[in-house]
User: What shape does this take?
Amino acid sequence: MNDKASEFKIAMIAPSRIGKTSLVTAVLQDTKELLSGTPLSIRPSDAKTSARINQHANQLRGSLREREFDAGAMSGTEASFEFNLSLNSPGKEKNGLNLKLLDFPGGWLPNLLHWEGSKEQNECAAFVRQASVLLLVVDASLIMEASSSREKRAIDAILNIAETEQIVEEWTKERHALSSEPALVIICPVKCESYFADNGGSRDKSEELYQKIWQLYGNLVDIIIAEDPGEIEILYMPVDTVGCVEFSHADWADLDTATPLFRPSFCVRGSGKQKVSGANDILLAVSKQIIRYEEKRRQKTAENSKRIAEEARKHAENKGFWESIAGIFGETTSDKAAKVARENADIAIKNATTTAELVQALANKKFGKRVKAISTGEKS
Amino acid sequence: MNQAQDKITAILHTRRKELPEIERQIARWEKLKQELSSLESAVSTLRKHETTDGQTQQTLSTLRFSPVYEAISDTVASLSLLKARFSRSTLNIGVSGRARVGKSTLLQSISGLDDEQIPTGSGLPVTAVRSRIFHSVHSRATLTLHNYESFRVDVLQPYHAALDLPEAPQTLEQFASYLYPRSDVELSEAKQQESTAIPVLRRLKEMQAALPSYQEYLTGAEKVVGLDDLRKFVAYPTAEEEDAAHHTGRPAPRPYLAVKDVQIECPFPYAQVNELGIVDLPGLGELAANAEEHHLEGLQNDVDLVMLVKRPLEGMAYWGKEDGAATNLLDKARGFIQNRRDFVYLVINTGGVDEAKIKALRGDILRSVNDGQPDKHFHVLETNTADPKDVYDNALVPVLNHLAERLPVMDKQVRDGTTALASNVTQRVEQILGDIAAALVKGKSSNLDSSEQESLIREADDLRLKLAVSLSEEITELHKKARQDSGPEFQAYEDAVDQAYNNVNAWIDNGFGHGVEKWCGNAYARFARDRNSAGFAGDELNHIRVEISNFFSGIDQHFETALDALWNHLADDIISPRFGNLLQGNSGGAALSTLCHLMAEAEEPCQGLSQAVQELLALRLDYRTQLHPKVRRALDDLQSEVEDPETGEKKARFTVDLNPAGAERLLREMASLARAAAYRTRKALMQEAMVPALVIHAAVEQFDDALIRSGDSEKEFRRMARCYRDDIWPGLFAGVEAATAKGVAVINAVKAVRHTLAS
Ligand SMILES: Nc1nc2c(ncn2[C@@H]2O[C@H](COP(=O)(O)OP(=O)(O)O)[C@@H](O)[C@H]2O)c(=O)[nH]1
Ligand SMILES: Nc1nc2c(ncn2[C@@H]2O[C@H](COP(=O)(O)OP(=O)(O)O)[C@@H](O)[C@H]2O)c(=O)[nH]1
Assistant: This one.
């Protein structure tokens, strides 16, 4: 791990086996593609992340080859896990951006809320509260394929909706107090292949999916807006991490218990070649956050450098976000590069030589068509 | 002869055309008989019912049904005879007369057969079995054989009866070892006096002794024999055989005993008339017990005309007492045919007799039979029965011409006679119906006085109001249910869908019901035959589509339960309690349909109310009509061809190697496709979980509208109150009798009888 590199924390909140590992892998793959031809690269920054991601990729490839795709067949998360991805250009690691994504079992949420449980759980609790991004990973097939009333009743329990609402509420409060730092909630449905027609699927049920997500997370959105009117950005960002599959059927078990089980099965579509869709929107969203707050910070510094200096000192004591992110901007970006980035983000990405330039360029790139802004986070 | 032939063919054709109507009549009378017996029991229930007044009871108890039943049985018997007459495929002439008058000779002359088939004899009577002979291109005889039981009843029993012996033995073995009286002294005293007893006993014992010669034929079957082999089946043993038997002590063979009936086909030499049959009718004056009845039976069912042969031999050259008896018997057989001379021809056999005797007989017949007026009562023909040409010219031609002219008249007389008999019975039935109606009118006694009438109207209106309130509460409840996505009914529906879904999956897992191994074996066999996998896959997918639907239609069972629950609730909780005793003893759907009937059949019918109930009962919930159309699309994907997303061309969905491993792979892929389709169907069905509740709500709402809110509702509730007041409000209007449900049962039974009478 590179101590000097800037750190950006993302907490993933979702039950096991929803597809968090897949999502991280997809972000990695999608970003790699984006960076091809530039001197920049993205890769696991430690051995355990690397091992985890490779293991996952191998399992997936095996399943697709056999054309039998059973979402329960892969081992899910039972302990917490920190994915470390680093984005940088060779030789300039300290000016790179280090993405930390925390995955922990959904069942830990009550302990995390109350600071109870093991040391590991307490560390997770701290991570979540400091995270700039909450990634709520949702199983789209769970929501779309539940049909009997028992199954529908089980959805909330499987997704830990109530606990999620509480933790989001706490997080929002903390973020609100730190109004100078980025704050983003991404509602990220995965296993969406059967509901979009833009990635090899034949039926477009995206509107139905969105409606259903709203029904589930509407309350959570209300909570955020009530606690923090207008600062926190909320995005809806459906991702296909596999792409070339189609929902087939699902097994449900323990429906009337506190821990119901849902296990979807998929058929492999067409040639069985993996086709990630929507994953790089996550990196775009992160970049947009960084740049937006960076610009705000500069403006404020110019307006009232004294107060900002004071604030900076306070953050230094807290080892706050801006201190840790400062590395990226250690290298000043040329105004020219910023201008190019605003005019043509894609060219800017290809021409980026530094992480700062890349982030600048990414921040100017438009989201994919699937993304919806639920709340823009721009105070009106 | 051609003209006569054409007429005969036409007559037979006309007869057959009438058969359907005759059969309908028979069925109608049988039905009427049953309906009358229902009426009788309804009447007797009403009569015993406590609220029926004494006078009505009295009148009802004087009704007599059983004579009518007998009359109907007679009518049916006549109709059956008519049917037998009209279903015959030939025109039949019977030949009758005492033994040795030349009957067999006459038959030989007409048919061209000889002694081997139609034995004649100068001494002993020789014709043992009655035969029917038909002109035909074939030469053969068809024997209908007895089994032991029919032999026992038709042959043995009459002898036993004639000798006052106990009933004929039940089995062949018992008959073989039966100890018959050794001589007449062992017979009853009365029988000892009868001169005929001795030869009858002798014959019976001969039959027993000869058993080994015919027991093999007691099969009950038909047997076709050549004409050359026929004799032993139709004739008594010859004199030589009897002699030989006497000498050797071995009984003469008697295969004819096993024969019930013989039908001979052969080409006639002169009378080449198609559809002509000649029937040998032995029996007049014969010894065999109850022979005369047999004779009559044969005549009634089998012949259109009888030639009664008479031969003026020594001592028979006059019209004797027995001849009179024979013609009387023929009168009975004539039935509804009005004229003797239409049905019976007297034939004087002139062969081998001297002219003086012929003259004597001719004169005697003219005087004592025809009252001195030729052909007044009977036509008289003269022929030499041994001369085929003479028989044809002088006996057959006149008879056939007569039949061609007169048979239509005779047929009409038989038909009209039967009809007259039937209409007589109809009148008697009408009379009973009239008596019942009169009794019921008397029973209704005085009408209610005006204050009671008012109170009855109040009760009726109140009943209607209370029903209206309960029903509207019920509808509110159903409305709520139809808009809730929970509740026990909802859950039961989901469970039924899940049950069906689990069944589908179990079936898929089990190699689509064949067992995995067998399925793969079948698949591989088809690969080998077709040299591709597409044919098998296509067939299987079609089958899978059908089967998945079949599994899901298993939820109909749930619907049945749901409807039963609805009927029970409506009938037992809402409707029956308001109708006093009217629906007592019925529950659920049965109670509703009783109500429906009672309303329609009330003395003052309440059609609107009845129809409301009937429509409610017609409500159906089922997978095929209500759900399948909505979920069918879920199965669309089960096609063996898919569109290539890039080229848009159709291509086979499954491409597997044509080997056992390929078969296994095909099973896996098809199973996965089938599972997905089943899941989609299940999902679509879950989305329709409201349908049953919506359908039920709509139906009950419609019922409420039709029952309570229709224009005639109030009027019909009052009518119903008048018709059933003592059932609905028992005791409330005591002292005044009204038609009750019991009375209605009688009225309905009367209606049924009338309806059949009019048909
Ligand atoms: N069809 C489909 N399956 C997915 C997707 N994301 C994850 N999965 C599957 O869901 C299962 C659990 O995924 P994993 O990433 O291991 O879940 P985790 O326990 O949350 O890390 C695996 O079988 C994945 O292949 C997706 O977007 N589409
Ligand atoms: N010569 C002559 N003999 C006859 C005639 N009719 C019958 N017989 C004889 O009378 C006997 C009895 O005749 P059959 O036809 O057997 O009389 P059935 O008992 O009435 O059948 C036989 O021996 C015949 O040959 C006839 O017309 N002419």
Notes: Chain A has 14 helices and eleven strands. The mean pLDDT of chain A is 83. The pocket of guanosine-5'-diphosphate (ligand 2) is lined by residues B 97, 99-105, 120-122, 125-127, 349, 351-352, 384-386 (CB under 6 Å).
